[in-house]
Amino acid sequence: MVTLRRLVVILGLVALGLTLWLSVVINAQVLVPPPQQGVDWVNESYTIQSPSYLVILPAGCGPQQPYNLYVFTPSQYDAWSSGSVTGAVYAGGLVDGVPTVIYLEPGSYVVVIYPAPSNYNGCLAIIGPRQGLGMGLVSLPSNPVVTNEVLGYFNITSISAYNANASQYGVPPGGASIQLNAVVVVQLASGVTQYYLVQGVLRLETQGNYYSVASIIWNETSTPSVLSDITGNGGVTAYGADEVYEYSTSFNVYNTPFSGYLIINVEASGGTAVVSFGYVVIRSGSYEPPEVTWFDNVTISPGSPVISAFIEAYGGRLTGSGRPMSLELVLAGYGNGEATTLNALNARLALAYQAGSTWVTPPNIYDYSLNSMEAVTNVRVTMRGAFAVLGVGPLDPGLVNPQPPAPVLPMTYVVVYNPVTNTMNTTYITQPYIVNQSKVIYVGQGTRYVLTGYYVNGEFVNTTPVIKPGNWFLTYEVTVSYKEQYMVSIMSSLPVNVNGTMTTNSTNWVDAGSKLNIEVSNVFLNNETMFVPSIGNETIIVNSPISLAITWTPYYLVSIISPLPITVNGTVTNNYINWIEGGSVLIIAANDVILSNGTMFKPSINNETIIVNSPVD
Description:
With 617 residues, the protein is mostly beta strands.
């Protein structure tokens, strides 16, 4: 399966005429004055079976002067070439480095460039005719853009393609592709310059939601394409008179929204040119961490050592084989020159090249491909800043943005995990992102979690992280850190010592696992009253909410003095001094005491019951 075929037509040269004339439109008829004697022109004939597009690009034509482009029917051409003023299907001017697109209904035509450039064999590319065009972002700069790395961003919200004649091309009926096309320039120690068209291709089978990626290389130094001493995961096969290198991965399932990148990197290494093909999927239904997969690293080893290798986009020159040096990211057919039709499409594309440490959108953006033979028949492109928005609609090929802004690309992945709420939020950021989580989370009665900081890629920070987007694929894993706290309430009518502080009301949130040291002692008043706490000294490990009320029991000093023995609550004593709990009952028994000498002592009280509600003295 190849993604494109040779596009450039070698034009025939005819001598006639002398002076450049401008075309004239009269009553919707384009009239073209005849050529003057002695002036050459270039012509090519076509017979078209279905509506098609023809693209003509002059690149580096000389001498620098205006050139006319005419499209005639055969009879119109015969009349014009014979020296008659005649009508034309199309007549317009050509500007060096600027492509022209012509829409043609079925029929036979002769395309004429007049006058002929002196170097017409190396400066004119006629692409097509084709039933459609690859549509997206195509850069043809007026000054060379040189880089070692390019990428194409895609975001597909919906896509459905169908081609009833797909089997004629050996492709699936629901197939489509996104192609990143670039021209690689290889300079050899021998002084020879080689050109290669390299393609990173995302192939989509939209009926089953499958995708694969492919790497394709053509030798565009001359025609036909000949590839030798090239190694990678793929191999070289013949495609007509040309040789093409290709490798394709196995299929994977995708879900929409489907987003990611195609990447091509080129460098000179050890006397060879190394072309690396990569891709990244950042979303397939849900966001995924960005993992760059370099699925094919192709080494080109020419006979002479490679001294430099780079990607170049330039509208003022063609490759040695006559191919445009455009940089492209386009939606097209699946392969083998197929043109497909979209039943549904909502997609965004962005094209960028590496300039230093930043990504830049190349200038002079057209919306139709110059280097893809595959095509779509009904895709409309609308520019939104650096992004092309693709939807179903009639083709309207043209220059869409001469100087687009730099793209703001989603390359930085952020995942934030909150272990308290057990939630995980994932996103890609294109501007500074403040990780803002709840400072306090209440869970049930008397339990809460208090924010202590964040672990960002394993490193703890106690301030709110601000994550800045990068220029390459980065992942930030953020875990929110909380400490668990319990409500601890200690109430007492008299002061107690709680962790070194005297208090009668200690109500606080306390970290889980903390120690709570409570120190209490009897309280003596000046009126012979003592209060005894309901607990003693305690150390409590806080592992749940605590509500503790310390109560105090009054005791009173009871002092009963008698010179002779008495009975207090069944105990014989003549000197009873004790602290008695308030409300207690004292039973005092005192009897007459008779001595042997005939003396008797009568107590001041006899049997008496006292309820102790105050000191007794």
